[in-house]
User: Fold these one by one.
Assistant:
Number 1:
Amino acid sequence: MSDNRFDPASADARWQAAWAKARCFEADSASTRPKAYVLEMFPYPSGRIHIGHVRNYAMGDVLARYKKMRGHEVLHPMGWDAFGMPAENAAMEKGVHPAGWTHENIATMRAQLQRLGFALDWSREFATCDPSYYGHEQALFLDLHEAGLVYRRSSAVNWDPVDMTVLANEQVVDGRGWRSGAPVEKRQLDQWFLKITAFADGLLEGLGTLEHWPEKVRLMQENWIGKSQGLQFRFDLSNGDSVEVYSTRPDTIFGASFVAVAPDHPVAQAVAMNNCDAGKFIERCKQGGTTAAELETAEKLGFDTGLGARHPFTQQHLPVFIANFVLMEYGTGAVMGVPGHDQRDFEFATKYALPIQRVVAASPDLADAPLTEAESGEGILVHSAFLNGMDVPTAKGAIIARAEAEGWGEGKTVWRLRDWGVSRQRYWGTPIPFVHCAQENGGCGTVPVPRDQLPVTLPEDVDFATPGNPLDRHPSWKHTKCPQCGGEARRETDTLDTFINSSWYFLRFASQPADKPFDAAEVAQWLPVDQYIGGVEHAILHLLYARFWTRALAACGKLDVQEPFASLFTQGMVTHETYRAGDGSWLSPGEVRRNGDDYLRVEDGTPVTLGRVEKMSKSKKNVVDPDTIIARHGADAVRWFMLSDSPPERDLPWSESGIEGCARFVQRLWRLFQQHDSNATGEDRALARKTHQSIAAVGEDIESLGFNKAVARLYELAGAIDKAPPSADRTTAIRTALLLAAPMMPHLAEEGWAAMGEAQRTGGLVADAPWPQVDPALLVEDEVTIAVQVKGKLRDTLIVPKDVPNPELEALALASEKVQRSLDGAPVRKVIVVPGRLVNIVA
RNA sequence: GCCCCUGUGGUGGAAUCGGUAGACGCGCUCGACUCAAAAUCGAGUUUCCUCGUGAAGUGCCAGUUCGAGUCUGGCCAGGGGCACCA
């Protein structure tokens, strides 16, 4: 320290070792302190930590360290979401084994996280590809099976006929396999499903209790679950058949002017048998895009089948269409069309010249007001026989009651949510613990592997040279004995969706006995997770599956928790400028140097075009490697940058000057710490006040995850200390600044703590030190600045002692020369006084 | 197409309740220190003008209010989500 600079290259590793040695961050389940479970979404070990991880984990780390300083027993674990396709892709491309590739990546990434000094409980670390993890997962799968929540049925997959393999949706590009380029086929396979739909109601209701989740995420889940209530009823057809339709607006039944069925509806198929135009139309419906935006803008097309559907009340025959906008998967695959009160039906009716009848109006005297577009809002029923005069909800109830009483329909709740297909025809996943016994005389069918034979482990000697599922191809692995009859049997070669791995890892972090997945009592102690932090890309699937899995385990009696994540935070991405060379190729930041307002290529000085600020991605080369910047600036500067400026839910633009500024501030604080003088005497009330205001503000900012604000407060406090002359209060302020900065810059804080002699005096690390106490008396200013406005415009400010009574304030304001000049003799009509804030004079 | 979010200086953003818009950082300008540089420190930095005791200003247009970045209505732009869901 001879050159009086903080040296992260030596300090970082030294304090990381000290924390590990003191086992500072190992959570004690036996502790009596209030618990705090802080969790960031665990990473997939793709190779290296990227800057987005650093931001995510820095946020959780600040909260974890802060909670510890506030006296909580903190659980802040880390592990690896280690199963998944990239490992198999690496195996195919580089000839490495998925397990070896994954474990190497984990070792690299663990070391990277450790270099950032995160306060993680590494004693609880695990990877989901450990048999000790996925074996317990198999046991839980059997629990769900016993509870009737697991079943098998045939379902379509994307089949690549060249690679002889099943493709994920993301592996299908423009209808072709991403590797082979062959057109993808739909193939029916028997697959495993979890009955998430059995929990639809609970998952929807539960959203209401998650007040500390972003509104946006709750809304997305609500839409995904998609509950609707309506009437399912039958139309008799002119050919003697009948068709079931479902409507959420059965109250508008008297406005129905047609019936539409999906192209793959049996009625449509039957028509197509005798009518080749219908067949052609059905074929045409199968083409075209499937995304919502494409479908919305696609023309609404129909084919008149010539059939009539008898209206249950008017007995009129409504035409039956095959329509491209009706989906077989939802409801009954058939709808009644009410053009007056559904925009899509309105467009359809206009196109095919069908009657448009108003049956809801704002008031009865508007019953015959013309319709220029569908009116789907509230109103009073008209032209609707016995429903006339009712409001929409009443009419809905009345029509459902009548349909049920007369037996031609019933009220029904329909969900968009579908059961969760968990079969993956892949190697690198949790083996599904079942065997198929296929003895010649019928066999025992699909039989669970007995629990004492778990885990069913993956074979290690697999080859990826040939396409297809290596488990299926393995010479011996799948051949086994039936646990029931002892006869020849075949192991299930599908593995579980990796979303299952991440659906209970937070339970295993809380409790990890060897003989069972977790201990319910210990889980109850830690759960729910008090703060969960991750990317918004997991807003629906991961978070919904984890909620479902938790509820399902609770239903099996394994748990006493309904909602696993009490509070959720979704952080923004890290972005960076993009650069392009003259030939249009992307350049990495290291290949570009700045010269005034121009950007030049380092190697040859040719001009570089500055592109948009975008999410860091390898393809655009606008990436920054955490290791490089840690080596250059130290872990604390990197952490500080990740927390500065941008609100955590928004994107954070990476900039070289920004990180340099952070590194500068690290040194500035270091210089400040060295001015800590325990012999200084004398008061500095203003600085003491600033100090205590900072303690309160930084604490509140961290608790509300407003890290950018906490950072700004620390800059302010540092500025105030800089300007203050030596005093006992200044010494306290320096010590306080160190403690307030400690969750964000822990290495610097420890180094300063030792340099100040506090480590020796308190006998401990900052990591174990308590958060400073706020003196409420010092939060209040003695003097306040009062804004003086004339007709709402600022004309003057007054500095007055606090608690000056209103009449006196008013008098002071009116006495102001600037106010008098501004009033220019006009009579004062009214004066508004906001104590401690302002005086507004209305003339 | 529908739903949601976001628009504040050159830039990232502050402004907890409707009460002094622009805290704090970055950048830039000027200065100090130095033989010089780095590092550091200090001052300035919304815009406009007639440079004042001035005017305007938080995407645009209205409105409510003594007072609007903040509330209401209508637009515009950018981003995200999606379900033709009957």
Note: The mean pLDDT of chain A is 88.
Number 2:
Amino acid sequence: MSNPCLPECGVARFLTLLNGPWATLIVRELLKAPHRFTELREALPGISPHTLTSRLRQFERHGIVTRTAYAEIPPRVEYELTPLGEGLRDVLEAMGTWAMAVPDPDAAVTA
Amino acid sequence: MSNPCLPECGVARFLTLLNGPWATLIVRELLKAPHRFTELREALPGISPHTLTSRLRQFERHGIVTRTAYAEIPPRVEYELTPLGEGLRDVLEAMGTWAMAVPDPDAAVTA
DNA sequence: CCGGATCCTACAAGATACTG
DNA sequence: CAGTATCTTGTAGGATCCGG
């Protein structure tokens, strides 16, 4: 895309960090509580392990989530939002609030 | 993706309506003021007319923007947010506010 | 249980050229 | 000016198999 991110354009940065349809939904789950890998899979019907890993890794790199592996049998891994990630709560709430006011995504044509 | 959109999940609906990297940026420009087609192109360096038209049409269908064509010479077309689209201001502001608090998208690794 | 590796699909987006 | 048409590309995501 090569958008130079204008001075005041924090929006572009947000989009870079939460790109793709799943990213925001994953954050949404983690806002409720820390989750294990499998728990996230169950909370996000249809997501593939590949995608989930991919998004989670990206979040780690950006300091949005922490990954804690417990060397137990069976293995256990917890994903938790960092304070930075917690800050996304306001954004997600704003999204949800707005979307609730939308008549209907598909029926909007008839409006 | 086929995500069934859980009961409380307005977030998923938001993501459906503002999908793709450019969608949100276009809304961001229109939040400042109504824009003509070419004005949007200039405000969004790198966007192709194809993509711009595509996103704009989708916004129209969803009732987020209105398209007003003036039968003049030269032709003039104005894109303006509907009240529904205006409601996105809070969401975009939340995004910007959060992103500003992020150390740096790329340097976050070193944090 | 967690998740990396590989290959493939779907869709947003880019490039370019052309029209009312 | 404001698009449209066609073709290609880039990347998120899906499917499947397998290793720690």
Note: The first strand of chain A starts at residue 35 and ends at 36.
